[in-house]
Amino acid sequence: MKLPVLSHPTTTVLVDDSDSFLQSVVFQLDSSIASKTFHNTTEALNWFQASAKRSELPLEVNVDVLNLPPDQRNVAVDVRRIFRVCGQRQRFAIPSVLVVDYSMPQMNGVAFCEALQGIPCKKILFTGAADEKIAVDAFNRGLIDRYIRKSAEDALDRLEQEIQAMQQAYFIDHSETLGEMLALHDYGFLRCQAMASLIQRLRREHGLVEHYLFHGPTGVLFFDRHGRAQLMVIETEKSMCSHYEIARDNDAPPSLLEALRERRVIPFFSQPGADGMYSAAVGEQWHRYCAAPQVCLGRETYYWALFDVPDHYLESPVYAFNEYLRAERA
Q1: Would you call 233 helix, strand, or coil by DSSP?
Q2: Domains annotated on the chain, with CATH
Q3: Are 223 and 318 in contact (CB under 8 A)?
Q4: Residue 194 and residue 188: Cα distance in Å, rounded?
Q5: Facing residues of 232 across strands?
């Protein structure tokens, strides 16, 4: 299991020549799945092509090429741009999953998927029993990612499960290279299965629908459907030592130094202008910024805790998923 650098609700597009069938499927799907329907393939293709132009993740990678040979060039990633995605209203409209019927009068489902090659979208072919050989061939050719028989008793349950799985796969694929780069530095937990499982469990248990890598302190920023934020601060033995050394060098109270040394607290010094590390301005009020750490034993020992996030950390108001759903269904 891998953890993408970010994940948020997206739009599932359903294409079928029967409008009544589309409305029936949407009605029965989980209400947390944002969807858009088309019963005309030409309109659907035009919408996809327009949407693809605005669906790229706004991440920047800067390469230092000044007077350096290719094997010595430095790559710098602005991690702050990852969590700033949460300020973009259009993020929920990104089409990450396509569910398309096979037998349609204008264009069959496989031809429709062929027309979308190059657009980063996971594709599910919703077929009749007679179309199964065609679906297998399309899967083997890499044109679709899944196929489901409409006649199966559990067709809608499977469809819902596959939509959720494909939305996750979309973000993993979309951020694979960036994740590999970041995992080599302060974000090694991105490639730790124990941490990935933990974060997925926290999402389920706390009703969290979005996550983004965060910098200063290192961790994962979560949002629930209502836009409420929580920050999972993640520390290693190395970074806990750094907290201790910085606190010691800034004449922190002995009680804080002892707690850090014994790994009894994990800090998030979140006062305005701070970067998550101790400063002299904190002083004896350090208890306000600390929590008891929990431990995850994975590729290494990770200490973590969930904190509420002050408004000044978010830079801009967050457009909540529930707001988006209400606007779309109004």
Answers
A1: strand
A2: 6-55+94-174 (3.40.50.2300), 186-313 (no CATH)
A3: yes
A4: 12
A5: 220, 306
What residues form DSSP beta bridges with 229?
Answer: 223
CA-to-CA distance for 328 and 26, rounded, in angstroms?
A: 13
Which of 33, 48, 149, 38 has its CA nearest to residue 95? 48
Nearest Cα to Cα of residue 61 among 179, 172, 193, 142: 179
- pLDDT of 291 reads 97
Residue 269 DSSP symbol: B
From CA 69, how far away is CA 205, in angstroms rounded? 49
Q: What is the DSSP letter of 207?
A: T
Nearest one of 101, 139, 94 to 121, comparing CA atoms: 94
What pLDDT is recorded for position 58? 46
| Residues recorded for the chain | 330
Location of structure tokens 């679709």: 144
Distance CA 39, CA 105 (A): 10
Whole-model pTM: value is: 0.88
Residue 53 pLDDT > 70, yes or no?
no
In this prediction, residue 130 carries a pLDDT of: 62
Give me the DSSP letters along 134-147. HHHHHHHTTS-SEE
The CA distance from 84 to 94, in Å, is 16
Whether the bond into 105 is cis, omega within 30 of 0:
no
3-state secondary structure at position 314: coil
CB contact burial 100-136 (16+ within 10 A = b; e otherwise): bbbebeebbbbebbeebeebebbbbbbbeeebeebbe
For residue 265, give the amino acid letter: V
DSSP run (H or E) holding 27 = helix 19-28
Alpha-carbon Rg for the chain, nearest whole angstrom, is: 23
For 200, what's the count of Cα atoms within 13 Å in the CB-facing half-sphere? 14
Q: Which pLDDT score, from 0 to 100, does residue 72 have?
A: 55
d(CA 51, CA 95): 7
92 is written with which tokens?
């929920």
